[in-house]
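We read letters as residues; the integers encode the fold. Take this protein.
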Amino acid sequence: MKIVFLDAYTMNPGDLDFTALYQLGDFKKYDRSKLDDIPEEVREAEILIVNKFEINERSLSLMPKVKYICVSNRI
């Protein structure tokens, strides 16, 4: 399972541990992502984690394998 966190820095500037996400599958995190600059491997993501990254028709068209989208929120 491919899991991608597109704007991980917004939630974790260095104080959180992502070990559990790495254990769930092929996890990749990107500090910040812009729609026009998303890496090719993001196009294969099945689970997408976002905070500030805009999800819309255009962004979803670039990630055709996405089955689940999580919006992260830090309490």
